[in-house]
Design brief:
The protein is 54% helix and 9% strand. By secondary structure, the protein is α/β, with parallel strands linked by helices. The protein has two domains: 11-114 and 193-316, Rossmann fold (3-Layer(aba) Sandwich), CATH 3.40.50; 126-188, Histone, subunit A, CATH 1.10.20. Strands 3-2-4-1-5-6 form a six-stranded parallel β-sheet, with helices on both faces. The protein starts with 10 loop residues before the first strand and ends with a helix. Mean pLDDT is 90; it is low at 1-8.
Amino acid sequence: MNIRTNPDRLLFIAGPTASGKSALAVYLAERFDGEVVSADSMQIYQNMRIGTAAPTEAEKRGVPHHMLGIVAPTEPFSVELYRNRALPIIRDILARGKTAVVAGGTGLYFDSLLLNEAYAPVEPDHAYRSELYALADREGNEAVYRLLAASDPQTADKLHPNNLKRVVRALEVLRLTGMSIAEHDRRSQMGAPAFYPLKIGLNIEPRELLYARINARVDRMLAQGLLDETAALLAAGVSEDATAMQAIGYKELVPVLRGEAGLDEAVEQIKQRSRNYAKRQLTWFRRDDQIRWFAHTEEQSFEKTAEEAARYIQDKI
Protein backbone atom coordinates (compact mmCIF):
# COMPACT_ATOMS: atom_id res chain seq x y z
CA MET A 1 0.00 0.00 0.00
CA ASN A 2 1.25 3.48 -0.85
CA ILE A 3 0.93 6.25 1.72
CA ARG A 4 0.52 9.13 -0.75
CA THR A 5 -2.90 10.74 -0.93
CA ASN A 6 -1.66 13.37 -3.43
CA PRO A 7 1.37 13.72 -5.73
CA ASP A 8 3.35 15.67 -3.12
CA ARG A 9 3.13 13.18 -0.27
CA LEU A 10 6.27 11.65 1.18
CA LEU A 11 7.92 10.65 4.45
CA PHE A 12 10.68 12.52 6.26
CA ILE A 13 12.62 10.49 8.85
CA ALA A 14 14.74 12.80 11.02
CA GLY A 15 16.62 12.56 14.29
CA PRO A 16 20.03 12.51 15.94
CA THR A 17 23.00 10.46 14.82
CA ALA A 18 22.97 6.78 15.84
CA SER A 19 19.23 6.77 16.60
CA GLY A 20 18.41 4.18 13.94
CA LYS A 21 17.01 6.41 11.18
CA SER A 22 18.46 4.31 8.37
CA ALA A 23 16.96 1.12 9.77
CA LEU A 24 13.59 2.79 10.28
CA ALA A 25 13.67 4.15 6.73
CA VAL A 26 14.21 0.64 5.36
CA TYR A 27 11.47 -0.78 7.59
CA LEU A 28 8.96 1.84 6.42
CA ALA A 29 10.03 1.55 2.78
CA GLU A 30 9.38 -2.20 2.96
CA ARG A 31 6.06 -1.61 4.68
CA PHE A 32 4.78 1.07 2.31
CA ASP A 33 6.41 0.10 -1.01
CA GLY A 34 9.00 2.84 -0.96
CA GLU A 35 12.51 3.91 -1.84
CA VAL A 36 14.94 5.72 0.44
CA VAL A 37 16.52 9.09 -0.32
CA SER A 38 19.40 10.02 1.98
CA ALA A 39 19.46 13.46 3.60
CA ASP A 40 22.94 13.22 5.08
CA SER A 41 25.57 15.79 4.11
CA MET A 42 28.47 13.33 4.49
CA GLN A 43 26.93 10.15 3.12
CA ILE A 44 26.85 11.84 -0.29
CA TYR A 45 30.62 11.27 -0.54
CA GLN A 46 32.23 8.18 -2.07
CA ASN A 47 34.64 5.88 -0.24
CA MET A 48 33.53 7.07 3.20
CA ARG A 49 31.05 4.38 4.16
CA ILE A 50 32.47 3.47 7.56
CA GLY A 51 32.90 6.96 9.00
CA THR A 52 29.55 8.24 7.74
CA ALA A 53 27.66 5.09 8.82
CA ALA A 54 26.19 4.71 5.35
CA PRO A 55 24.05 1.57 5.17
CA THR A 56 25.62 -1.57 3.77
CA GLU A 57 23.98 -3.62 1.03
CA ALA A 58 22.81 -6.08 3.69
CA GLU A 59 21.31 -3.26 5.75
CA LYS A 60 19.46 -1.89 2.70
CA ARG A 61 17.60 -5.25 2.49
CA GLY A 62 17.02 -4.81 -1.23
CA VAL A 63 15.32 -1.42 -0.85
CA PRO A 64 16.55 1.08 -3.48
CA HIS A 65 18.59 3.91 -1.95
CA HIS A 66 19.47 7.24 -3.52
CA MET A 67 21.90 10.11 -2.80
CA LEU A 68 24.54 7.84 -1.26
CA GLY A 69 28.14 8.02 -2.47
CA ILE A 70 27.31 10.28 -5.41
CA VAL A 71 30.32 12.64 -5.41
CA ALA A 72 34.07 12.30 -4.91
CA PRO A 73 35.41 13.58 -1.58
CA THR A 74 37.43 16.15 -3.52
CA GLU A 75 34.34 17.75 -5.04
CA PRO A 76 32.48 20.69 -3.49
CA PHE A 77 28.87 20.07 -2.55
CA SER A 78 26.15 22.33 -1.19
CA VAL A 79 22.54 22.47 -0.05
CA GLU A 80 21.66 23.85 -3.48
CA LEU A 81 23.28 20.91 -5.25
CA TYR A 82 21.58 18.48 -2.89
CA ARG A 83 18.16 19.96 -3.60
CA ASN A 84 18.69 20.04 -7.34
CA ARG A 85 19.73 16.39 -7.41
CA ALA A 86 17.27 15.05 -4.84
CA LEU A 87 14.11 16.71 -6.16
CA PRO A 88 14.04 14.86 -9.53
CA ILE A 89 14.65 11.58 -7.72
CA ILE A 90 11.79 12.19 -5.30
CA ARG A 91 9.45 13.20 -8.10
CA ASP A 92 10.38 10.11 -10.09
CA ILE A 93 9.69 7.85 -7.11
CA LEU A 94 6.29 9.44 -6.58
CA ALA A 95 5.50 9.34 -10.30
CA ARG A 96 6.07 5.59 -10.25
CA GLY A 97 3.42 5.24 -7.56
CA LYS A 98 5.87 4.52 -4.77
CA THR A 99 6.59 6.14 -1.42
CA ALA A 100 9.62 8.42 -1.10
CA VAL A 101 11.27 8.01 2.31
CA VAL A 102 13.74 10.84 2.91
CA ALA A 103 15.95 9.94 5.87
CA GLY A 104 18.92 11.61 7.52
CA GLY A 105 20.18 14.08 10.05
CA THR A 106 21.01 17.17 8.00
CA GLY A 107 18.27 19.66 8.77
CA LEU A 108 19.19 22.06 5.97
CA TYR A 109 18.75 19.28 3.41
CA PHE A 110 15.21 18.59 4.62
CA ASP A 111 14.37 22.30 4.66
CA SER A 112 15.68 22.82 1.13
CA LEU A 113 13.19 20.29 -0.26
CA LEU A 114 10.26 22.34 1.00
CA LEU A 115 11.26 25.77 -0.29
CA ASN A 116 8.94 27.76 -2.52
CA GLU A 117 9.78 26.76 -6.10
CA ALA A 118 9.97 30.40 -7.23
CA TYR A 119 12.78 31.13 -4.77
CA ALA A 120 14.79 27.93 -4.73
CA PRO A 121 18.37 27.88 -3.41
CA VAL A 122 20.74 29.75 -5.69
CA GLU A 123 23.37 27.67 -7.46
CA PRO A 124 26.94 28.89 -6.96
CA ASP A 125 28.37 31.16 -9.66
CA HIS A 126 31.86 29.68 -9.66
CA ALA A 127 33.34 32.20 -12.09
CA TYR A 128 32.12 35.20 -10.09
CA ARG A 129 33.11 33.50 -6.84
CA SER A 130 36.63 32.97 -8.18
CA GLU A 131 36.84 36.66 -9.12
CA LEU A 132 35.89 37.68 -5.59
CA TYR A 133 38.38 35.34 -3.95
CA ALA A 134 41.08 36.59 -6.33
CA LEU A 135 40.24 40.16 -5.31
CA ALA A 136 40.58 39.19 -1.67
CA ASP A 137 43.97 37.61 -2.37
CA ARG A 138 45.18 40.78 -4.14
CA GLU A 139 43.68 43.51 -1.97
CA GLY A 140 42.47 41.82 1.20
CA ASN A 141 39.05 40.79 2.55
CA GLU A 142 38.11 44.44 3.09
CA ALA A 143 38.03 45.00 -0.66
CA VAL A 144 35.35 42.34 -1.13
CA TYR A 145 33.47 43.58 1.93
CA ARG A 146 33.37 47.11 0.48
CA LEU A 147 31.59 45.75 -2.60
CA LEU A 148 28.89 44.27 -0.38
CA ALA A 149 28.64 47.41 1.78
CA ALA A 150 28.10 49.51 -1.33
CA SER A 151 25.41 47.27 -2.85
CA ASP A 152 23.71 45.69 0.19
CA PRO A 153 24.61 47.66 3.33
CA GLN A 154 22.01 45.93 5.51
CA THR A 155 23.57 42.52 4.94
CA ALA A 156 27.07 43.96 5.24
CA ASP A 157 26.22 45.37 8.67
CA LYS A 158 25.51 41.84 9.89
CA LEU A 159 28.79 40.35 8.64
CA HIS A 160 32.42 40.72 9.65
CA PRO A 161 34.77 41.64 6.76
CA ASN A 162 36.87 38.55 7.50
CA ASN A 163 33.88 36.22 7.18
CA LEU A 164 34.81 36.00 3.53
CA LYS A 165 32.75 32.92 2.72
CA ARG A 166 29.48 34.57 3.78
CA VAL A 167 30.40 37.93 2.23
CA VAL A 168 31.08 36.23 -1.10
CA ARG A 169 27.85 34.26 -0.87
CA ALA A 170 25.84 37.42 -0.19
CA LEU A 171 27.35 39.10 -3.27
CA GLU A 172 26.72 35.99 -5.32
CA VAL A 173 23.02 35.82 -4.41
CA LEU A 174 22.63 39.56 -5.03
CA ARG A 175 24.21 39.24 -8.47
CA LEU A 176 22.12 36.24 -9.51
CA THR A 177 18.73 37.22 -8.04
CA GLY A 178 18.80 41.00 -7.78
CA MET A 179 17.83 40.81 -4.10
CA SER A 180 19.64 40.62 -0.79
CA ILE A 181 20.32 37.19 0.65
CA ALA A 182 17.99 38.01 3.56
CA GLU A 183 15.16 38.94 1.20
CA HIS A 184 15.74 35.86 -0.94
CA ASP A 185 15.66 33.62 2.14
CA ARG A 186 12.50 35.35 3.38
CA ARG A 187 10.70 34.79 0.08
CA SER A 188 11.87 31.18 0.00
CA GLN A 189 9.75 30.55 3.09
CA MET A 190 6.63 32.17 1.61
CA GLY A 191 3.87 30.55 -0.41
CA ALA A 192 3.18 26.89 -0.94
CA PRO A 193 6.02 24.46 -0.16
CA ALA A 194 7.31 22.11 -2.81
CA PHE A 195 5.96 19.13 -0.86
CA TYR A 196 3.67 18.25 2.04
CA PRO A 197 5.57 15.46 3.82
CA LEU A 198 4.57 13.39 6.81
CA LYS A 199 7.42 14.00 9.26
CA ILE A 200 8.69 11.35 11.66
CA GLY A 201 11.35 11.91 14.34
CA LEU A 202 13.30 9.00 15.84
CA ASN A 203 15.20 9.28 19.10
CA ILE A 204 16.69 7.09 21.84
CA GLU A 205 15.72 7.91 25.42
CA PRO A 206 16.98 8.72 27.94
CA ARG A 207 19.81 10.88 26.58
CA GLU A 208 22.41 8.72 28.36
CA LEU A 209 21.26 5.71 26.35
CA LEU A 210 21.67 7.65 23.09
CA TYR A 211 25.16 8.71 24.14
CA ALA A 212 26.08 5.14 25.03
CA ARG A 213 24.93 4.00 21.60
CA ILE A 214 27.00 6.75 19.97
CA ASN A 215 30.08 5.66 21.91
CA ALA A 216 29.53 2.03 20.94
CA ARG A 217 29.12 2.96 17.28
CA VAL A 218 32.39 4.89 17.27
CA ASP A 219 34.15 1.82 18.71
CA ARG A 220 32.52 -0.30 16.03
CA MET A 221 33.68 2.09 13.28
CA LEU A 222 37.26 1.82 14.48
CA ALA A 223 36.98 -1.97 14.55
CA GLN A 224 35.59 -1.94 11.01
CA GLY A 225 38.59 0.03 9.71
CA LEU A 226 37.88 3.77 10.03
CA LEU A 227 41.58 4.56 10.46
CA ASP A 228 42.44 2.68 7.26
CA GLU A 229 39.55 4.39 5.45
CA THR A 230 40.93 7.79 6.49
CA ALA A 231 44.43 6.83 5.36
CA ALA A 232 43.08 5.66 2.00
CA LEU A 233 41.36 9.00 1.42
CA LEU A 234 44.57 10.92 2.09
CA ALA A 235 46.55 8.51 -0.10
CA ALA A 236 44.03 9.09 -2.90
CA GLY A 237 44.81 12.81 -2.82
CA VAL A 238 41.92 14.11 -0.75
CA SER A 239 43.14 17.20 1.07
CA GLU A 240 42.70 17.29 4.81
CA ASP A 241 41.11 20.71 4.23
CA ALA A 242 38.40 19.28 1.96
CA THR A 243 34.84 19.56 3.25
CA ALA A 244 34.54 15.79 3.30
CA MET A 245 37.52 15.51 5.64
CA GLN A 246 35.87 17.82 8.16
CA ALA A 247 33.39 15.07 8.96
CA ILE A 248 33.52 13.85 12.54
CA GLY A 249 35.78 10.82 12.67
CA TYR A 250 38.08 11.71 9.80
CA LYS A 251 39.18 15.10 11.07
CA GLU A 252 40.29 13.66 14.41
CA LEU A 253 42.21 10.76 12.85
CA VAL A 254 44.40 12.79 10.49
CA PRO A 255 46.74 13.86 13.34
CA VAL A 256 46.95 10.22 14.43
CA LEU A 257 48.14 9.20 10.97
CA ARG A 258 50.72 11.99 11.10
CA GLY A 259 51.98 10.79 14.45
CA GLU A 260 50.88 14.03 16.10
CA ALA A 261 48.20 12.51 18.36
CA GLY A 262 47.41 9.24 20.05
CA LEU A 263 44.58 6.99 18.88
CA ASP A 264 42.90 6.80 22.28
CA GLU A 265 42.75 10.59 22.52
CA ALA A 266 41.33 10.86 19.01
CA VAL A 267 38.66 8.26 19.71
CA GLU A 268 37.51 10.17 22.78
CA GLN A 269 37.31 13.36 20.68
CA ILE A 270 35.21 11.56 18.08
CA LYS A 271 32.82 10.33 20.74
CA GLN A 272 32.50 13.73 22.38
CA ARG A 273 31.98 15.59 19.11
CA SER A 274 29.45 12.99 17.97
CA ARG A 275 27.49 13.45 21.21
CA ASN A 276 27.60 17.23 20.78
CA TYR A 277 26.40 16.85 17.20
CA ALA A 278 23.46 14.71 18.32
CA LYS A 279 22.48 17.39 20.80
CA ARG A 280 22.55 20.05 18.06
CA GLN A 281 20.48 17.85 15.76
CA LEU A 282 17.80 17.39 18.43
CA THR A 283 17.69 21.15 19.02
CA TRP A 284 17.28 21.77 15.29
CA PHE A 285 14.56 19.22 14.63
CA ARG A 286 12.56 19.97 17.78
CA ARG A 287 11.88 23.45 16.42
CA ASP A 288 9.57 21.79 13.90
CA ASP A 289 6.19 21.16 15.52
CA GLN A 290 5.09 19.08 12.52
CA ILE A 291 7.44 16.24 13.48
CA ARG A 292 5.81 13.34 15.31
CA TRP A 293 8.45 11.86 17.60
CA PHE A 294 9.01 8.21 18.46
CA ALA A 295 11.66 6.82 20.79
CA HIS A 296 13.07 3.44 21.63
CA THR A 297 14.25 2.92 25.18
CA GLU A 298 15.68 0.23 27.44
CA GLU A 299 12.11 -0.99 27.93
CA GLN A 300 10.91 -0.60 24.33
CA SER A 301 12.76 -2.21 21.43
CA PHE A 302 13.48 -0.60 18.07
CA GLU A 303 11.13 -3.10 16.43
CA LYS A 304 8.21 -2.04 18.62
CA THR A 305 8.96 1.63 18.03
CA ALA A 306 9.14 1.08 14.28
CA GLU A 307 5.78 -0.66 14.36
CA GLU A 308 4.27 2.27 16.29
CA ALA A 309 5.59 4.65 13.64
CA ALA A 310 4.11 2.47 10.88
CA ARG A 311 0.70 2.44 12.58
CA TYR A 312 0.83 6.22 12.93
CA ILE A 313 1.55 6.56 9.21
CA GLN A 314 -1.19 4.09 8.35
CA ASP A 315 -3.68 6.16 10.36
CA LYS A 316 -2.75 9.23 8.33
CA ILE A 317 -3.47 7.62 5.00
